[in-house]
Amino acid sequence: MRQERAPLSRHLRVRQDRGHTVLEFLGEIDIAAAEEIVPYLDAATAPPAPRIVIDLSPVEFFDASGLRLLYRARSRVLARDGHLSLVCVHPPTLRVLRVVGLARLLPPLPTLDDALRRPGTPAR
């Protein structure tokens, strides 16, 4: 069952959906947004074997601070034997993910439904 929640900040909405914690990044993900998001990202990735989906669909701008958030999430999920999926269709963001090699480590999926249908892949 999907639980919709109001954004925790201007840049993040968190909800539970099909056994996953969905972190939906909103708007412009820059250094200020990252500072707001980190505590929630850390809380979501703290339990053992977390099942996390980071949804970048609503993102309009994504800089190195956003990349650091993704690497942080990946590292924390790996350390706890969890699963992490990424949803992204924004062409400039996809290009950045490919250039830095993150797309190989965390292949972006085209829809949230695709990410939630998968049983979960290890965040290798």
From TrEMBL:
Gene3D superfamilies: STAS domain. It comes from the Bacteria. Pfam families: STAS (PF01740). GO terms for molecular function: anti-sigma factor antagonist activity. InterPro entries: Anti-sigma_ant (IPR003658), STAS_dom (IPR002645), STAS_dom_sf (IPR036513). Residues 10-119 form the STAS domain. PROSITE patterns: STAS. Belongs to the anti-sigma-factor antagonist family. This is Anti-sigma factor antagonist. It comes from Streptomyces glaucescens. The lineage of its organism: Bacteria, Bacillati, Actinomycetota, Actinomycetes, Kitasatosporales.
